[in-house]
Structures are given as C-alpha cells and as structure tokens.
Predict the 3D structure of the following.
Amino acid sequence: MNCGYHLPPAAGTDLPNFPFRDRWQPFLGSMRMYVKMDSRRDFQSWKQAVKQGKVFVTSGPILSLSVDGTELGGTVRLPASGGEINIETELASPIGLRTFEIVQNGAPVNAEVEKTRLGGVDRWRIRKRLRISQSCWIAARGKGLPIEAMKASVRGNPAWLESDVIAHTAAIRVQVGDKPIRSAADANFLIRQLRQQREYYRTKGQYKDAQHRLRVVELFEKAITELQKRGRSK
C-alpha cells in the first residue's frame, strides 16, 4: 500500500489439519470480513464493494472509521500544499479492549482515546485532527483481551482462543495534489523479497512444462520492474 497499491484487507475460514479425524473444529474460523453494500445484495455488488475497500476485518469487535466524512475505501483530496483532516473512529466490543490506534501508512498516530462502557459493551473513540503534507493512507486497528472464558468449553483448547481479539479497517486514501502514495524504502523492501522468491521458483520450483518456469520468472521480473519505477517516483 505504501507503493500506491490499493489492497483491501480480507479474512476467511482457515481449515488446518484436514481431514479432522483427531481434532474437533466447532467454528468456521475466528476472522471475518464485513462489507458495506448499497441497496443491492447480489454477488457482483458485493465484489465491487470489496474491491473498493468498503470493508473491515475482525475476530469480534465492530470498527468504524471516517476521514472528513469519507468512509472506508474512499479518497480525501487536498490541495498541493496539503492541509488538515478530521479523523473519527470507534471500536466496540463486549470483551475487554486493550489497544486502539489510528495508523498512517502503517505507523501509529499519537492520539487520545476516549473510553466508555455502556450495557456491557466497551466503546473506545478517537477524534483526531491531523496535518497532512504528503499523500498517504489512513486506517484504524484495535485489540481486545484473549477469549479466556471460552477455553474451558472447547475440547483441546485451540491455540487461536489464546490469541488477542483483533480488528482492522481498510484504508481511506488522502491525496495531496497529484502526488502518489509512494515509499522508496518500502518499494526496495518488496524488491528484495521478490528477488528471493524469484530465485526460489527459478531454481527449486517443479513444473510440468519448462515454459511454465519461464513464465513464473517473467512475472517476478515484471513486478520488480514496476516496483523500481514506483520507488523512483515522487
């Protein structure tokens, strides 16, 4: 995302250790993706909403975010000189919360959290006015306590019950003038990763047809070239 790609988060069912001959799996997975749709409820509309980034992923808490009134997946446009934006976000959960923060290009933003509890539900809110001088993306994320109370009721104590309850929104992009969202450091990091993977698939990959090996290497080269261009752009 710091290289200018729009990548909405996604979540789904994880089915380890299949078949389940010796393990009991009472749930369909701990993470879910919530998608905000318009009046239409067909599959094509759902896919379009996901593609636009109107989503958040969670293992329980409900999470909302807006920037200058723009919702998830949208873009806020500022003049070339930059400007200030108003961020509003809320995290709600009946299971005790432990962290909540705004992130800008993946880095936490210093902000005060308003904490309330009503009807057995914790509601944490952040209202932040932030000065923006470079194009970026904004998201929100939070964590709750592990689901300790459920451990005893699940035979075998699956490891995921010991992990924190988590939630993360898709991004809202903030466009400053015509400047793209770019990070040379992140582009270089991805290039190093892709080069390592390219060599693995070139030297150790097993293919039915030798042409498939060439095609895979070609795709890696194409991705590396594009990232090099993005790393040089301002």
